[in-house]
């Protein structure tokens, strides 16, 4: 096994171009487990830890540029106000030790349907900045997950950063596991209200071959909110609307039975999480609106 | 009751390292373990050593048609590849109770992960890759996976031609052992019952989940023998099984205990011991074997999964009339400790209650599932889950408070067990229940804090942020259990201690040498405390545990403080007598008290029972060394009659009660155990801090069985979750506050009046938690672990 340690982003791209099968490694919280269990024997490991910029983030007016290797701990500590959904999801990742090492770039690189960041990323509507010696491109998150543990990267490309819209409204993330910490998702759900566009986005984890959005649920909810003038009047969402939203989220999933849970439980739990997180985000939105009006 | 209770507040402070019994002396290994400096068996290294690797069966039941090792042998760095054909003697099997387990598969594999071949290479990765090159041709066979398939007319026999000591009395060769217990007339008594309550229960396969995987180092000796450094629970039991397979006399297999990272029963059976020795003797080089976490799940036995049928009757005024039960334990492919687990499950199946008319049957099956054997609670855990569920059910049927109902039927000193054995030491069952019930309940809605969002850490789902209080219902449940202490059913259970007393640099020093496996229970701490108390010395050296001294028996059955602690006490007393004889010879003429008074050793001096100092111990000893090795036995027990189950089978009983407070997210089926209070009688707390640690650890292991821990085996008997990713054990966020109330009611038969404590809290914890979940949800919940699907119904 060759172990490459590029000192700069350009060197890393050159190395990846030269060794397209090279497996990038940053925190190593996923790759090292696979290697230790001999599930994977890469010819080349491409260590990205010397590239400082991957650990940086930048909060702009409208977007947050998150370096691929920014640890979950840093996201929790520094970005909760601008990326509340991702920060909440980050807090559910494994143990403190893992959160100190792992980052969103790794979650995207592995593209496991159980990755904790995905529902929050889908709900935010972010873009993934990927690059190769051929140039840089932005992949919308909706087009990023292409199959079970497969993403839209070309063999010579590396993930450099994630560009997330700054939260323009409340966001929530919820995950079911059979333990109260340090647990792989049985299923997970993310929701983001986007009052600026009067839209709602969602993300579902561990309940389909890839992380997915519940698009019918989003559209239903956006229409219902619009129709009832809820964005403006800040009224409580009628239970029937919340129920229908929850059912549509359940229906969007395509889960399987496995040792972690049954398909029917996953569908059920997604519905419960959808209803609850909608309630939490909407309560927060109404609270914000009210205080905005008072001010 | 004054003076018999310790509250948690006075248990939390550690005492100085030179204290005697009754003090919370800190553990010598504690800081090292917490800081990561403790050397475990997996940390050992020897110059020029090789690494062993085990090729295991991918099938649960298959015939081996051929094995081709040539490619593996041809790989650079490989020193040896061994299969069943390479075993050096006619002894090719081993086992705790039956000799039924092949060292390497003998033409048939009987469970998923059974060892088939061994490789020794100069690097662990080389060994692993070479093993992958061994070509094994299998022909899959139908699996036996439950009672119906084990006893079917055309059932494949796991061990045809059995010649073990239970073979002639079992109703079917796929039954390892069957123990009925009949006392009184259950059918007649049932006619007196106003209510009859039946129930079927199931317990999943729990794993010991010790943190230090199986590992050891075998070093070939110049005399043709071998030195084996290994993490185990019982050195001499290992030795008895290892030596014949190697074709060596026992004195040529020198075993030394190395750092053990937990055991809980999972190290009673051999794992890599014989394999490492075979490779070392074959290659002439030291060989180390370390299982990884995945392999560890195949490297040791698990807790028997069980199906249990119970019937209880009671009169309107709340008196139990009778009990019938049938307990089916899945022993898996090899016997391991199954016969003794059957004995425990049957003899303790009635629980800590007075029921004079009983019909009991317990069996263990041979199947192609993973072998099951010893785990903390040993047969009593499964029974306790079922009979405690029944107690709640009968109380509900009678409209009685479940605690009062239990207290009304609780056994006491003098109660006759279903085996006919009279309980002849304190059995404060009702009192333990009273104590946990009397504790104040933890405040409601602890996740709420003024003006803040919910603290999800205090809610079901925890950090996963699944509820902010929605769907959350609280429930409270109680349970109490009974566990035997020590080896039962006529087993010659003994421990050996060697104690040496001498003067070193002007100070009297005691050296305590036993073969006791320190697996985390704190025995090394307690041995030093005992020696200080009995010999009045400050300095005590604990010699490493090895086979150069007699057997200490197993670190299991809650027995080591009683047994090896008892042996240390016993030997210390004999050493003290010798020292006093020396004193009488040297100084007897100087003071009449040497001849007339009761003499003690205290603070390095010989004193009279009146407190008068007669001499310095150092002067008494002079250049003499007192060095004795003695065996200690508990009072003998008897086998259970194979038809009636009658017999004085157990040495001592141990009791604990729990109150569980849980909060359940009824919509998602997630559980937060808020508090799990325990009261336990320990006879005498030799080290109160360690006692509380044991009780909290056992309680947490029981919680794990209640809500998450299960090895899942598929219909083809293959293990589906052999990793800590999918075999979940409680994190600190799953572990509740555990208030502990310790009673000290002496058992006059035991050293210092102590009672073995390690297992009892594991029994009642599980049913208490499930009882609380039932109270919160109104569901019947007949199976543990309780999964979210069981609560949500989807």
TrEMBL record, chain A:
InterPro entries reported in the protein's UniProt record: CO_DH_flav_C (IPR005107), CO_DH_flav_C_dom_sf (IPR036683), Diverse_Substr_Oxidored (IPR051312), FAD-bd_PCMH (IPR016166), FAD-bd_PCMH-like_sf (IPR036318), FAD-bd_PCMH_sub1 (IPR016167), FAD-bd_PCMH_sub2 (IPR016169), Mopterin_DH_FAD-bd (IPR002346)
Pfam entry (one): CO_deh_flav_C
Gene3D superfamilies: 3.30.465.10, CO dehydrogenase flavoprotein, C-terminal domain (3.30.390.50), Uridine Diphospho-n-acetylenolpyruvylglucosamine Reductase, domain 2 (3.30.43.10)
Domain of life where this protein originates: Bacteria
SMART domains per UniProt: CO_deh_flav_C
FAD-binding PCMH-type domain ranges (all copies): 1-169
Keywords noted in UniProt: FAD, Flavoprotein, Oxidoreductase
Protein name: FAD binding domain-containing protein
From TrEMBL, chain B:
Record carries keyword Oxidoreductase: yes
Cytoplasm keyword on record: no
Pfam families: Ald_Xan_dh_C, MoCoBD_1, MoCoBD_2
Keywords of the record: Oxidoreductase
InterPro entries, A to Z: Ald_Oxase/Xan_DH_a/b, Ald_Oxase/Xan_DH_a/b_sf, Ald_Oxase/xanthine_DH-like, AldOxase/xan_DH_MoCoBD1, AldOxase/xan_DH_MoCoBD2, AldOxase/xan_DH_Mopterin-bd_sf, Xanthine_dehydrogenase_dsu
A GO MF term: xanthine dehydrogenase activity
Residue intervals of the Aldehyde oxidase/xanthine dehydrogenase a/b hammerhead domain: 35-142
EC numbers: 1.17.1.4
Protein name as annotated: Xanthine dehydrogenase subunit D
Organism: Streptantibioticus parmotrematis
């Amino acid at each position: 096994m060759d172990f490459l340690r590029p000192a700069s982003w350009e060197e890393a791209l050159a190395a990846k171009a030269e060794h397209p099968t090279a497996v990038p490694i940053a925190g190593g919280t996923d790759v090292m487990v696979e290697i230790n269990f001999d599930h994977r024997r890469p010819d080349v490991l491409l260590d990205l830890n010397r590239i400082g910029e991957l650990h940086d983030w930048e909060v702009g007016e409208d977007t947050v540029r998150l370096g691929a290797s920014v640890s979950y701990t840093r996201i929790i500590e520094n970005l909760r106000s601008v990326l509340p959904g991702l920060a909440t999801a980050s807090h559910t990742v494994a143990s403190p030790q893992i959160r100190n090492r792992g980052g969103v770039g790794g979650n995207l690189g592995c593209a496991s349907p159980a990755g904790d960041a995905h529902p929050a990323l889908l709900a935010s509507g972010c873009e993934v900045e990927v690059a190769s010696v051929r140039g840089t491109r932005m992949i919308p998150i909706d087009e990023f997950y292409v199959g079970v543990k497969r993403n839209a990267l070309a063999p010579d490309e590396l993930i450099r950063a994630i560009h997330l819209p700054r939260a323009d409204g409340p966001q929530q993330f919820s995950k079911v596991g059979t333990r109260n910490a340090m647990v792989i998702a049985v299923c997970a759900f993310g929701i983001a209200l986007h009052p600026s566009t009067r839209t709602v986005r969602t993300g579902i984890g561990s309940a389909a071959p890839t992380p997915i959005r519940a698009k019918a649920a989003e559209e239903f909810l956006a229409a219902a909110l619009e129709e009832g003038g809820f964005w403006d009047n800040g009224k409580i969402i009628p239970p029937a609307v919340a129920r229908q939203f929850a059912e549509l989220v359940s229906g969007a999933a395509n889960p399987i039975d496995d040792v972690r849970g049954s398909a029917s439980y996953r569908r059920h739990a997604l519905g419960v999480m959808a209803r609850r997180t909608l309630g939490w985000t909407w309560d927060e939105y109404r609270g914000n609106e009210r205080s905005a009006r008072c001010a | 009751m004054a003076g018999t209770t310790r509250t948690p507040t006075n248990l939390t402070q550690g005492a100085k390292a030179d204290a005697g019994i009754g003090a919370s002396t800190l553990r010598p290994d504690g800081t090292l373990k917490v800081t990561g400096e403790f050397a475990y068996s997996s940390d050992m290294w020897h110059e020029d050593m090789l690494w062993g690797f085990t090729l295991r069966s991918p099938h649960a039941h298959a015939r081996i048609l051929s094995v081709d090792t040539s490619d593996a042998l041809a790989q650079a760095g490989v020193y040896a590849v061994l299969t069943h054909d390479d075993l050096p003697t006619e002894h090719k099997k081993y086992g705790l109770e039956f000799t039924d387990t092949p060292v390497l598969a003998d033409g048939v594999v009987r469970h998923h992960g059974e060892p088939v071949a061994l490789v020794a290479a100069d690097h662990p990765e080389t060994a692993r890759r070479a093993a992958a090159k061994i070509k094994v041709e299998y022909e899959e066979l139908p699996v036996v996976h439950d009672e119906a398939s084990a006893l079917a007319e055309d059932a494949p026999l796991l061990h045809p031609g059995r010649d073990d000591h239970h073979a002639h009395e079992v109703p079917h060769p796929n039954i390892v052992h069957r123990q009925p217990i009949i006392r009184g007339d259950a059918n007649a008594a049932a006619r007196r019952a106003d209510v009859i309550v039946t129930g079927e229960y199931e317990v999943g396969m729990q794993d010991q989940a010790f943190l230090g995987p199986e590992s050891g180092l075998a070093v070939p000796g110049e005399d043709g023998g071998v030195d084996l450094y290994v993490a185990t629970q019982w050195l001499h039991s290992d030795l008895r099984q290892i030596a014949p397979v190697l074709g060596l006399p026992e004195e040529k297999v020198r075993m030394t205990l190395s750092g053990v990272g937990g055991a809980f029963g999972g190290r009673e059976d051999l794992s890599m011991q014989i394999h490492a020795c075979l490779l070392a003797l074959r290659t002439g080089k030291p060989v180390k074997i370390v299982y990884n976490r995945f392999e560890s799940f195949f490297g040791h036995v698990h807790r028997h999964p069980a199906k249990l049928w119970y019937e209880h009757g009671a009169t309107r005024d709340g008196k139990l009339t009778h009990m019938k039960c049938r307990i089916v334990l899945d022993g898996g492919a090899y016997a391991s400790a199954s016969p003794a687990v059957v004995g425990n499950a049957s003899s303790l199946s009635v629980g800590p209650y007075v029921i004079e008319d009983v019909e009991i049957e317990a069996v263990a099956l041979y199947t192609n599932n993973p072998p099951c054997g010893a785990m903390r609670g040993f047969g009593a855990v499964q029974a306790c889950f079922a009979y405690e569920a029944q107690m709640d059910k009968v109380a509900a049927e009678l409209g009685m408070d479940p605690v009062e109902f239990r207290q009304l039927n609780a056994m006491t000193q003098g109660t006759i067990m279903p085996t006919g054995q009279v309980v002849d030491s304190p059995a404060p069952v009702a009192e333990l229940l009273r104590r946990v019930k009397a504790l104040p309940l933890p405040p409601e809605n602890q996740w709420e804090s003024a003006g803040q969002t919910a603290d999800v850490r205090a809610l079901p789902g925890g950090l996963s942020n699944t509820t902010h209080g929605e769907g959350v219902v609280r429930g409270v449940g109680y349970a109490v259990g009974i566990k035997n202490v020590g080896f039962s059913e006529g087993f010659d259970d003994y421990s050996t201690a060697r104690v040496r007393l001498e003067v070193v640099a002007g100070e009297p020093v005691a050296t305590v040498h036993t073969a006791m496996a320190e697996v985390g229970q704190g025995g090394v701490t307690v041995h030093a405390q005992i020696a200080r108390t009995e010999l009045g010395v400050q300095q005590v050296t604990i010699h490493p545990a090895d086979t150069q001294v007699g057997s200490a028996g197993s670190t299991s059955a809650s027995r080591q403080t009683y047994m090896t602690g008892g042996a240390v006490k016993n030997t210390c007393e004999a050493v003290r007598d010798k020292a006093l004889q020396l004193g009488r010879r040297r100084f007897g003429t100087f003071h009449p008290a040497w001849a007339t008074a009761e003499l003690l050793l205290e603070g390095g001096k010989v004193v009279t029972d009146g407190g008068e100092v007669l001499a310095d111990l150092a002067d008494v000893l002079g250049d003499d060394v007192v060095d004795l090795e003695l065996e200690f036995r508990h009072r003998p027990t008897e086998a259970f009659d194979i038809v009636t189950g009658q017999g004085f089978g157990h040495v001592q009983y141990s009791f604990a009660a729990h109150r569980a407070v849980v909060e359940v997210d009824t919509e998602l089926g997630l559980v937060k155990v808020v508090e799990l209070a325990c009261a336990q009688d320990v006879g005498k707390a030799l080290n109160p801090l360690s006692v509380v640690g044991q009780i909290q650890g056992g309680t947490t292991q029981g919680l794990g069985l209640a809500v998450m821990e299960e090895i899942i085996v598929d219909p083809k008997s293959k293990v589906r979750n052999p990793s800590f990713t999918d075999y979940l054990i409680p994190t600190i966020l799953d572990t509740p506050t555990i208030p502990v109330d310790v009673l000290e009611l002496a058992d006059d038969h035991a050293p210092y009046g102590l009672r073995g404590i390690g297992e009892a809290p594991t029994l009642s914890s599980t049913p208490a938690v499930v009882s609380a979940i039932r109270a919160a949800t109104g569901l019947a919940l007949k199976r543990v672990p309780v999964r979210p699907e069981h609560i949500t119904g989807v």
